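Hello forum,

I keep getting stuck at the same step: I have a sequence, I want structure tokens, and every attempt I make locally crashes halfway through. Rather than fight my setup again tonight, could one of you with a working pipeline run this one for me? It's a single chain of 370 residues.
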Amino acid sequence: MSSTTPTTHLWLREETKPMEHRAALSPEVCKKLLEHGQFEITVESCKERIFADSEYSEVGCKIVPGDSWRQAPKDAIITGLKELPENDQTPLPHTHIMFAHCYKQQGGWKDVLSRFVEGKGLLYDLEFLQDDNGRRVAAFGFYAGFTGSAVGINAWCHQQLHSGEKYPAIKPYPNENVLIDETKAKLAKIGRMPRIMVMGAKGRCGSGAVSYARKAGIPEENIIKWDMAETAKGGPFQEIMDVDIFVNCIYLSSQIPPFVTQKQIDADRQLSVIVDVSCDTTNPYNPIPIYSTNTTFDNALLDIGSSNPKPLQLCSIDHLPTMLPREASNQFALDLLPTLIQLPNRATAPVWTRAEKLFHEKVASMATTN
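Reply #2:
Ran it on my machine without issues. Output:
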């Protein structure tokens, strides 16, 4: 590498969201970036992260205390997964890479963007790093659907085996086989298989949901796969009421009619579990407008009020892939790697220039949006 070639400094911050065990950069990807020769990588110590600090230091990363990114050099690119704590409203002078959840007018979106404006910082939102065909370069979609399907089937089993009892807290699993074996054991005790509908079945997320149902032993005829062709007529859909488990995996980009309504769930139905993997909870166009709060790994299921005595429980955990943190992180980071390698040329690399343009467009939209 020429001595005049600028070094790109990535600063992997500690995740602060409860039960978040994933990482935007895996040790394997850090090693590849450092071998590339144009990168310096600082990693904040994090006890919750699935990868030990030593896994990063062994490949050449510098380890620093957690939550120290505010003191990082101004040219460091602060890299993380989930959004920053809501109770911190200090200006943001750095460039950040993360899922900020503020480009679709979610609750508090202006507060998030205002911090960048005040600090003269820049946001590269991971959700909107897209290739020339408009496809995301990296996503947790497959494992979001995979783990969402697992929660849905396990929740249905819990209703059958432990009616009326609270669903236990969800802990991360060392690998997917342990999770699959657990589900299979529960299904064997019940003696019948649920019917599960996956909405958005052709996408990354939906394919993950279908994959888990198959690996758990659900017969193919019990897995109802819907995508845009099936929803073209517009909701709400009685077909959702006729299954045991509904897993929503769509990518919401504009207003659509609701998939389900309160009137439907008050009426006679088979449905008893909804997993909203998409989690457009505060989006004004949420197609499942029967709830307004996210659930957590400690309290995974929300009881939906209904005049129908049959229970209906909903899961709206917005970081489901952390149930399988090592597999999910490795896949995501490897998918992101080719784009990260372009960071030293981000002033001209199309993925990064598009992301920067979109940031400035969203900032400008604050003045014209109520």
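DSSP finds eleven helices and twelve strands in the chain. If your local run keeps crashing, start a new thread with the error log.
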